[in-house]
Amino acid sequence: MARPIVRSGGREARIKARTAAAPVYLPAVNRQVGPINLLGPDGVQKIHRGAMRILWDIGIVFRDARALSHWKQAGARVDGERVHIPEELIMELMSSVPPRYTFHARNPARSVQVGDNFSIFANCYGSPFVYGLDGVRRRSELADTKNFLRLAQMSQAMHISGILPAEPQDVPVPQRHLDLVSSALKLADKPIMGSVISEAAAQDTIDMLRIVFGEEFVDRNVVVTALLNCNTPLVWDETMLDALRIYAAANQPALLTPFLLAGASGPASPFGGVALLVAEALAGMAYAQIVRRGCPMVMGVALMGVSMKTGAPMLGTAEPGLMNLLVGQMARHYNVPWRSCTMWTGSKMADIQAGYDSANSMWPVMLGGCNFIMHSAGFVEGALGVSYSKWVQDSYQLEGYHRFFSGLADEALEPFLSDIQSVGPGGHFLGTDHTRENPFSMNPLQNNDSYEKWLDDGAKSGEQVGVEEAKRQLDAYIEPSLDEDLSDALDEFVAAKRRVYAAAA
Amino acid sequence: MARPIVRSGGREARIKARTAAAPVYLPAVNRQVGPINLLGPDGVQKIHRGAMRILWDIGIVFRDARALSHWKQAGARVDGERVHIPEELIMELMSSVPPRYTFHARNPARSVQVGDNFSIFANCYGSPFVYGLDGVRRRSELADTKNFLRLAQMSQAMHISGILPAEPQDVPVPQRHLDLVSSALKLADKPIMGSVISEAAAQDTIDMLRIVFGEEFVDRNVVVTALLNCNTPLVWDETMLDALRIYAAANQPALLTPFLLAGASGPASPFGGVALLVAEALAGMAYAQIVRRGCPMVMGVALMGVSMKTGAPMLGTAEPGLMNLLVGQMARHYNVPWRSCTMWTGSKMADIQAGYDSANSMWPVMLGGCNFIMHSAGFVEGALGVSYSKWVQDSYQLEGYHRFFSGLADEALEPFLSDIQSVGPGGHFLGTDHTRENPFSMNPLQNNDSYEKWLDDGAKSGEQVGVEEAKRQLDAYIEPSLDEDLSDALDEFVAAKRRVYAAAA
Predict the structure, then answer these.
(1) CB contact B137 to A (< 8 Å)
(2) What count of other Cβ atoms lies within 10 Å of the Cβ of residue A456?
(3) What is the DSSP string of B445-479?
(4) Cα-based torsion angle of the residue sequence B278, B279, B283, B285 in order, rounded to the nearest 10 degrees
(5) Which of A120, A202, A337, B487 has the fewest C-beta atoms under 10 angstroms from its C-beta?
(6) B469: exposed, middle or buried (Cβ count in 10 Å: 0-12, 13-18, 19+)
(7) Which residues are A262's β-sheet partners?
(8) Hey, is A45 helix, strand or coil?
(9) Across chain B, how many H-helices and E-strands are there?
């Protein structure tokens, strides 16, 4: 099961990988370009006031008896399942959300900062379908999930290994999280995400992290982040709240994420839509503060348009991009980290549409100063599919965004003026010392060869190049070491739990 | 010759087009997002001082006796072909360059603003190769040039019809500009660009514009813009200066454009490279002011990286993007319009790389506040090729950028709060009045269908979709009307000049 799909020519490649230089992992992007603030103080207040009126006048549903009782106790007006939260209560609770947290990896060198000027890239999440190494679409299996975790480990700019880039449909649901969490912990040494399908799955996630990091460390530090969706408009359901309570109680954050299909689950209006999702995210974050004061939480958004022709989600279009700028500004207003979605496409291939849509969804999110950037590699088919080809293509794109948004180091002009003087009019700079040490970034998958060379090399499309690179990376992959005792303890935990869940099934 | 390549099913399509609503042409983008200023006042001064030292200490070559004599007369120190220009002289000459001009089309409804907060999109320029409607690459011919001019006319967001999206290699060089200028004037009614291959070609361009616009109008208004490249580093050659003198004398602007291959024609340094190209562009613009004070001129840049592996140009990478931000800030410092390049790629297809590269080169240029955006549709193969498929794909992308950078209209929140109230938790917004009038932008070439529907429809890649759309547009194209007398006068001019150039050959 731990075997990647492709191992052809494996021995030679593995020797090569072992003798090659270790990959240079990039830290969280320390953004020096942007953020762009579209709104003046009045605009920020307008959205804030809208969100406050939604939470008090309209109210938000918590479909969960415990949450309702918690809210009542905290001072909200509870009417059936609907919770009306006054501004003072929301803002008082929000005041304890930290603006930034350190997200620990089991390898300390891979720990990253979440919040402030920092941005991290996480991969895609939950795809039921996979576009395979043979180019064929099929349902996702655990072997794919594991392959993508290996590819996450191989990527220089992907900060998070994630948990379920592909939803493994060949594993029974009650046991799935055991495979996912143990794979995420073993196959990569980057920060992982947590399971949220049930209270038990969330608790098992925490327990497995306690095995690897130690109980005391987990209680004091962030070692996992969960993704929890609000049922927009205005419903937090029991499953999500069950998981939220487990994570918050363990002092672990969640991305509290309304899912806005503008025109379907919310208004097709930048201001109205953002007011709605700010209200929903604030309600989730505030509730987490009732569970445990001071627990880090992330304001989440998943934002897309809806085609008025077909009802299909539209990704990478202009208005959701503008709305991401507004959300970013609101997150800075509340002084909390925020999460959004990028690099996605409605295309069923890694084709030109996939390239445009991915880039056009990344730029506004980075310009909005997003801290936790989900789906930054792999998604096709409107998030229903994950493509091996697109995954590795996206993953190299991330290095470019990392470079751009890191901005410019200050440079002394003198050496260049002296180069220009010695090269002189009509000369060239190919031989200067500085050119030889040229620090300009290159993307190894970007083909800039002549037409003739490209033809000789097989006239490959970017999609083909991506598949070949995915195979190469899987072949070169080396599992990061994990202390044998910890690994055994994890296996024992999984085996014991598997028996429990199998018996209950 | 005026016949497009594809006319199959023409009658029906033409009837359809004639009865369909006229295309909605978009005005110049009135940017409300950005620009991003990376530099503080010290950074701006550093680049400015670098440019001034290049122009005075190192000097710049004008390979042209008349220009050397003009510079001497103006007060520069001329040493052989090398002109050393003191800061006071450069800045005094620059002070008469207008910050903005109206670029007139023969149809006044298509005239646009160049400068300040405005951005216009022009198409690609000079490709010797074309990626045809059959997907095959071949040398460009006049029939292609004309087809692209027709496609430019069909595009809602492409502001300029251009002049030579494809370089027509089946027309003798001395006569080429006659076909290009008359085609640009007849096949579209948008602003055109001018020929620069010789003094005679530039003069013929102006004379043809005088036929269409009237002599007096041309003398007082901008009706053409020429693209003139500096031979970076630090050489303005005679051909370019010959053309510049003709355009400037006729009060018509040029995009004075250094061509920076960072690491080859200039230093692989953001600051050093930008100082060099600012120096070159300023020298060209200042010289134009010697020819005619107050003539509008545009600070141009063509900026790309160079692969240290193969020496090939790299398009859409991070550092040239950052350099575009610096150039934009310098143009604002000098208070002149600026021009850059976008939507280009080294790919030999309209594939995922083409999509990423195009978008990744457009965003920084728009964020830098660029006014005159060249190459915004069609380029592949590192600017050596123009692809029909990519052209129409790019042209729809422009509508998305237009929408994003136009920013947000202020919206009253009340109606949306009331919608949210009546929809309530767990409801949907598909039936609200606002959703039905949903103004969110849609790209008709973006496929957001289900996998099954996409499969049923032929499982088409974005490249195939682009080819089909190019055929459809060429079929639906209707030539914009031009007064018969003017058209005849143009034809007579062309016929007479053709005889002259044929006799001279």
Answers:
(1) yes
(2) 10
(3) T---S-HHHHHHTT---HHHHHHHHHHHHHHH--P
(4) 10
(5) B487
(6) buried
(7) A266, A305
(8) helix
(9) 18, 20
Find tokens 């803002």 and name the residue: A91
Structure letter (DSSP) for residue A348: S
Pairing type for strands A192-194 and A137-139 reads unpaired
Hunting for tokens 């042409």 — which residue is that? B25
Task: Decide if B128 touches A, using CB distance below 8 A.
Answer: no
Judging by beta carbons within 10 Å of its beta carbon (0-12, 13-18, 19+), is residue B433 exposed, middle or buried? exposed
CB-based burial, A110-143: b 16+ in 10 Å, e otherwise: bbbbbbbbbbbbbbbbbbebbbbbeeebeebbbb
User: Phi and psi of B392, rounded to 5°?
Assistant: -75, -35
| Contact between A425 and B354 using a beta-carbon 8 Å cutoff | no
C-alpha to C-alpha distance for A184 and A142, rounded to whole angstroms: 12
**How far apart are the C-alpha atoms of A245 and B378, rounded to whole Å?**
53
Close Cβ partners of A314 (under 8 Å, ≥ 6 residues apart): A304, A305, A306, A307, A320, A346, B440, B442, B446, B448
Does pLDDT of B19 surpass 60?
no
Instruction: Give the single-character DSSP code of B56.
Output: I
Q: What is the mean pLDDT of residues A188-216?
A: 97
Asked whether this complex has an ipTM greater than 0.85, the answer is yes
Token duo for residue A47: 């959205």
Q: Which two tokens stand for residue A386?
A: 């994950």
CA B151/CA B465 separation, integer angstroms: 15
Sequence letter at residue B60: I
Distances (CA, A) of A146 to A1, A153, A395, B273: 9, 11, 17, 45
Q: Are A386 and A129 in contact (CB under 8 A)?
A: yes
Of A360, A384, A429, the CB nearest to B266: A429
**CB A369 within 8 Å of CB A328:** yes
Amino acid residing at A324? N
Residue A35 contacts B, CB cutoff 8 Å: no
Q: Are A357 and B305 a contacting pair at CB < 8 A?
A: no
Q: Percent of chain B beyond pLDDT 70? A: 95
CB < 8 Å to B385, chain A: 451
Per-residue pLDDT of A71-126, as tens digits, reads 999 999 999 999 999 999 999 999 999 999 999 999 999 999 999 999 999 999 99
Residue A199 CA, chain-centre distance (Å), reads 22
Sign of CA dihedral A103, A109, A110, A115: positive
Contact A413, B39 (CB under 8 A): no
What confidence tens digit (pLDDT) does each residue in A131-159 have?
999 989 999 999 999 999 999 999 999 99
Contact A301, A104 (CB under 8 A): no
Residues in chain B: 505
In this predicted structure, what is the pLDDT of residue B437? Answer: 81
For chain A, the distance separating the N- and C-terminal CA atoms, rounded to the nearest angstrom, is 23
> CA B308 from chain center: how many Å?
28
CA distance A310 to A106: 45
Q: Is A311 on the interface with B (CB under 8 A)?
A: yes
Cα A474 to the chain's mean position, in Å? 21
Distance from C-alpha of A314 to C-alpha of A302, rounded to nearest angstrom: 12
Q: What is the total residue count of chain A?
A: 505
Residue B330 CA neighbour count, 13 Å, CB half: 33
- 8 Å CB contact between A162 and A20: no
**CA A226, A343, A347 angle in degrees (round to 5)?**
120
Q: Does A356 touch chain B (CB under 8 A)?
A: yes
Structure confidence by residue, pLDDT tens digits, A282-336 = 999 999 999 999 999 999 999 999 988 888 999 999 999 999 999 999 999 999 9
Coil, strand or helix at A83: strand
Q: Is A57 in CB contact (< 8 Å) with chain B?
A: yes
CB distance A61 to A235 below 8 Å: yes
| Strand ranges inside A240-384, DSSP E | 254-262, 298-300, 302-306, 313-314, 338-341, 372-374, 379-380
